[in-house]
TrEMBL record:
Keyword list, A-Z: Calcium, Disulfide bond, Glycosidase, Hydrolase, Membrane, Metal-binding, Transmembrane, Transmembrane helix
Stated name of the protein: alpha-1,2-Mannosidase
GO cellular component: endoplasmic reticulum; membrane
Active-site feature positions: 253 (proton donor), 382, 493 (proton donor), 528
Length: 621
């Protein structure tokens, strides 16, 4: 049976959905309502009773046939009036639930039988309903402001077939997240990670509840309001950063997972405790600078135990700008934004052999020269290039220097890193690792580098570089093929290929695409390919990116799902090689990107939000 739609009759009366209000009302196209139709004849009934007819005598009762007929009419009219005017007021919730099976209350994410996911009613509310409504609207960009042009594709109305397929996939992803979250809640509540095969937990990232904080905004986006409130209560009553004030903490991971998690969830919910925690953490992270313009890789809560580094990982010092700038804007304290800008200013003054491309390890001080290093867009450097573009977006295009730095890097990437397959295919490329002095390039591309496709695509739209969009498509296709050709359907940590005798080309393995012997074969539930597929879908509207993402999700279900949650693999060609780990970014990023690619385009629009490297959405204001 075909599900009901918003203009289908329910029972005997037509009911419509107010998409903005999120609940059903009588159809205003019919001003002559049932109340009027039933009530109007009643005023003339008395006249009919004034006429007499021949009675029928039966025992003790004398019955007038005409009066009996009129009494029956009155009774029928009264019952009809009760159904039309009174019953709907007491059964609105039941009617809404019927309609939700077809239109999900918003005529957008039509997820069946799920009160938490559907937009809450906005007529007489409780505080919880008010909060859920606020969250719903913020997820869809309420309050966002920007002077930059819009870049998202203008999606036309969906066909019924496309809508039903998209919604079924959306529901499957949401179910997958719920499975993983339940496993974390049951086995590792308040700890960093759940062990998805054995049960139990691991505390690898400060022991502060990394999965909890990393997942907060995903819970909101997917409409898990009860679960979010449960986690929020834990943050209010249990979360602390000061139990071990002298322990060495990882600066980079703390920024992107914890600070990013607090800020993203605050932007979507307005819960002040989240901003308070972000600000408290911000003060502690200042200890990492310790008299330097660059933060150390480790810091302590107690400033007397923090040290300083002589060499700094580029991605670690170049991946705090979004978080620090946003924290300054939300708190009014400029110190964080000043620190962030100073780092980019120094890096922008560097003089590497390849313009715009910096080595994995850099030193403090302006005007540094760098030579004879391996340049890539993968591990240890990746999110620096990501943040050059995103910081420009978050600052509403006012930091023109960051745009120039990003464009310079992209020009060098195109000139030196692109490698094409020897078989002549134009469908895909990889971004290899190039020696800054010899300019020789090796056919190695880590999974982390797959983010670059999304950055290229966004930059092409903002800066009018149409050729960069073509490159973005080719890079994404190369990353996707790493999934498509493995036994598990999942891509390795680093795909390495055989070198060709022709410069700038590589040779694929005829069976496995990448070399099984040279590649790093583990898969740790990484999100970067899905991130780029989502961005490309939102910018082009091409359904093939949804199909590729769905293929990856199905591979996750087959190869990584356990009875508790999801696990990584030590070898993508062996689905039994489970590593018993589920990093927090699987819930923060991987499943979030999957959900967003199947949601309606107003959910976390690229025109309203900037996502940090852990996929935490910062509202553009």
């Amino acid at each position: 049976m075909e599900p009901p739609t918003s203009d289908r009759c329910l029972g005997q009366f037509r009911t419509v959905i107010d998409i903005e209000k999120g609940y059903s009302e009588p159809d205003q196209q019919y001003p002559s309502s049932a109340r009027t139709t039933v009530g109007a004849p009643l005023s003339g009934l008395k006249k009919l009773f004034d006429h007499t007819t021949n009675p029928i005598v039966s025992g003790r009762y004398t019955i007038n046939l005409r009066r009996l007929f009129l009494l029956l009419l009155i009774l029928i009219g009264t019952i009809t009036l009760w159904f039309v005017a009174i019953l709907p007021e007491h059964s609105a919730e039941r009617t809404d639930s019927l309609i939700q099976n077809a239109v999900g209350i918003t005529n957008q994410d039509r997820l069946k039988d799920d009160e938490d996911h559907a937009r809450p009613h906005v007529s007489p509310h409780t505080g919880a309903q008010d909060s859920a409504t606020y969250r719903y609207e913020r997820v869809r960009g309420k309050g966002a402001r920007t002077s930059l042009k819009k870049i998202q594709f203008k999606f036309p109305p969906e066909s019924d077939q496309d809508r039903l397929q998209r919604e079924s996939r959306l529901q499957a992803v949401r179910d997958g997240f719920e499975h993983a979250w339940t496993g974390y809640r049951d086995h590792a509540w308040g700890h960093d990670e759940v062990s998805p095969v054995s049960g139990g937990y691991k505390d690898n990232f400060n022991g502060w509840g990394a999965t909890m904080i990393d997942s907060l905004d995903t819970l909101v986006i997917m409409g898990f309001n009860k679960e979010f409130d449960e986690a929020l209560e834990w943050v209010k009553t249990k979360f602390t950063m000061t139990n071990n004030p002298t322990i060495q903490l990882p600066f980079f991971e703390t920024i992107i997972r914890y600070m990013g998690g607090f800020l993203g969830a605050y932007d979507l919910t307005g819960e002040k405790v989240l901003l308070d925690k972000a600000e408290e953490l911000g003060k502690y992270t200042l200890n990492a600078f310790h008299g330097s313009d660059f933060p150390s890789s480790k810091f302590t809560i107690d400033p007397s135990f923090s040290g300083s580094d002589e060499s700094f990982v580029l991605a670690e010092i170049g991946t705090l700008q979004l978080e620090f700038s946003h924290l300054s804007k939300l708190t009014g304290n400029p110190i964080y934004d000043q620190k962030a800008r100073k780092i980019f200013d120094i890096l922008g003054s560097a003089m590497p052999e390849i313009p715009g491309l910096l080595p994995p390890n850099v030193q403090a001080g302006e005007g540094r020269k760098y030579s004879n290093f391996q340049a890539s867009v993968g591990g240890m450097v990746d999110s620096y290039y990501e943040y050059l573009l995103k910081e420009w977006i978050l600052l509403d295009g006012k930091a023109t220097k960051y745009k120039e730095m990003f464009e310079e890097a992209v020009s060098s990437i195109k000139k030196y890193m692109i490698m094409t397959p020897e078989d002549g295919s134009k469908d895909y490329v990889i971004l290899g690792q190039v020696n800054s002095t010899s300019k020789t390039v090796e056919p190695d591309m880590g999974h982390l580098a797959c983010f670059m496709s999304g950055s290229l695509a966004m930059g092409s739209k903002y800066f009018g570089r149409s050729e960069d969009l073509l490159l973005a498509r080719q890079v994404a296709q190369g990353c996707y093929l790493g999934y498509h050709h493995s036994a598990s359907g999942l891509a390795p940590e680093a795909a390495r290929f055989t070198e060709s005798s022709q410069p700038g080309k590589f040779v694929t393995d005829p069976q496995h695409f990448f070399s099984q012997y040279r590649s790093r074969m583990e898969y740790i539930l990484r999100p970067e390919t899905l991130e780029s597929l989502w961005i490309l879908y939102r910018l082009t509207g091409e359904k093939k990116y949804q199909d590729q993402a769905w293929e990856i999700f199905q591979s996750l279900e087959r190869s990584c799902r356990t009875s508790i949650a999801y696990t990584g693999l030590t070898n993508v060609n062996n689905i039994n090689s489970k590593d018993n780990r589920m990093e927090s970014f699987f819930l923060a990023e991987t499943l979030k990107y999957l959900y967003l690619i199947f949601s309606t385009p107003d959910v976390i629009s690229l025109d309203d939000f900037v996502l940090n490297t852990e996929a935490h959405p910062f509202l553009r204001t």
